[in-house]
Amino acid sequence: MNKDNRPAAAGMDKAMSRRKLLVSMGAAGALAAGSWMSGGVAEAASRDNAADLLESVFGRGNVPEGLLTNVNRKLAELFPMVNVKWFGALGNGVKDDTQAIQQAINFANTAAEKPIVFFPAGTYIVSPTRTTRIVLHSGIRLTGSHAAVIRVKNDAGDYETIFGPATNNTYIENVSISNLTIDQNASNNTTCNVTVADNGSRQYAIAIYRFQHVIVDNVRFVSICGINAVTLNGDGSKFAVVRDCFFRFVRARGQANYDNSAVYFNCENHAALGNVFLAEIAEKAYGAIETHNGLAVIANNVSEGYVTGVNVVSQSQNTAVTRDNSDITVTGNTFSKAAHGVRLWSITDKTLHNVNITNNTISLANAEHAERECSGVSTVLDLSPNRVLDGDYDTLLVAGNTIKFQMEPVQRATLIDSVNYAIGITPRGNMANVLVSHNVITNAPVAGIKVGLHNQPNRFVNIAVRDNVIANSGIYQHGIRDYCAAVFLVGNLERVSVVGNHISDTFDTMQGHQSFYTFGTAMKEVTIRDNTVWSKQGGYRSSIQSPGIDTGDKHVIRYVDSVPLTSEKLTVAAGDTIVPDGPPAPDSFYGYRATTGGTFGTLTGVTGTVASGTAGLTVNNASLLRVGDVLAIAGAPASYEIVYIKGSVVVLRTPVPVSLTNAAVSFHPPALLPFGKYEALQA
């Protein structure tokens, strides 16, 4: 990013002859200047510390506050900074310093070298209104120390912004604001009514709409309360950086739950780097950062208590498409106590291209926020009839993120099952070329990873979900349990692979529901294979129902000591081959083909109770049972495959047609067809 390209101390790097000094200032001024330069100023300048330099010359009584004589004004023009106190600002927390600050800025704007405007320690009261603000000009640089606080007066009422250009249509460039504290004093403004649709009440701290090269650096924004604290927002604008700033949100009096983002970019070439955002969950601070258009880097920021860490948007509505690619990177951020980590928005007809979301740490306070939707990284789904978010997505990487949810043991009416997931690739637009890899997901209430959208015509093409660790997913015990899956695939999917993921449930009593759930008949070239599924107790259900999915399942050859097996437990599927590997005996067979699935082995001491027409068998001991085992139940016809185990409840693939109490349960062996009979050996 291009910082202000003016020399840091313009005017200080040029020698001034005594004759030139006399001509410009007069003899008395030159004598005074010579006296100062022989002492404190030269010493401070040698330390290359502009603040010390100003104090050495002006900050210790040399110039009466608020008074600039012709001599002092000329001298001020020679220095790289001017002090707002020279123009009448008191910084005493009582006097309104708005006009004095504006005079200092105006002076800097008219000076040949445009010196930095410096705020010494103090509290500077300002009074923005609907129609007035502190006006910024091109080349203006404001700075101070964090002990310099710019505070909105009590009961300021409605105002649009504290700082901004003369009008929202005024173009400015090369502007920076740094090393200050801006206090919007929200709790002491009882006469405002912040309203999204009313520009004059939006309460920005900094608002610039037509610009190039704007930097907000190391500023503390306390008690921010507006629609945005910093909005850098305009067609054709470019080069903006907000870095190393602190934001604390306090909701102001106004429209109920008004939308807000601390930092809002709608421009090209921008970055948010190393900022900290804090809010209480009850304040409903909706967004820490919102980025539109790109090129953009959102890196190393921290938020706590905000609903969303980052909103990534293709472009704004009603703006021309100016870039071939969005080129947006969101990396190395930490979003704590959020409802969403990173959300992706693709506006209709404005594709979101080439987005990298990597190595973020996301913890979700889903129960505390109580939002309908909750996600770590997700596309935004809008099913409203206006179809604003029907834009496409192309080239997306979601990798190396950690996403952890709060436990939700109690049913919550506001939770919508279909839009809760750790990673959700579920837009209404088309989606192509996506890799979801090496993420670690813990305690997702509903879905761990969801790809696709039910009952919509959009297509999801060339997507890989691989090598993720998904622990304790689908543990919400209420709502639509089918959606509670580690991986959920739905809709029009083509060339989608789910490979090499590690899925586990670590609870003493099984809490998860499904390892995989697929829904829909329009899937092509979809692969689910070579994944590891494990549970401490019980076992996951797997509901791969859509036709044509390659699960990697093949008829296998099982080598055993002898047939029939009695003590050794072995579950086989119809079509598997069983080969005894002991020495052959006359009239024995080389092998056996299983014509039905079943489980070899001995199961003793297990009883079960089931109601007629149901598939839930309650057993006295489930520790010897696994998903996939085939059971025989005394008093019930046929055999029953286990599809899910939780605690003492064993869910069977088919209902039991009779009611049974404490019926003996055993393994049901497969039916075998022998082949390759050994003949008696010749002597």
TrEMBL record:
InterPro entries noted in UniProt: PbH1, Pectin_lyas_fold, Pectin_lyase_fold/virulence, RHGA/B-epi-like_pectate_lyase, TAT_signal
The record places domain Rhamnogalacturonase A/B/Epimerase-like pectate lyase at: 82-203
Q: Gene3D superfamilies per the record?
A: Single-stranded right-handed beta-helix, Pectin lyase-like
What start and end residues bound the annotated signal peptide?
A: none
Tell me the SMART domains matching this sequence: PbH1 (SM00710)
Highest taxon, organism lineage: Bacteria
Where is coiled-coil annotated? Answer: none
* UniProt-recorded name of the protein: Right-handed parallel beta-helix repeat-containing protein
Q: Which organism is it from?
A: Paenibacillus oceani
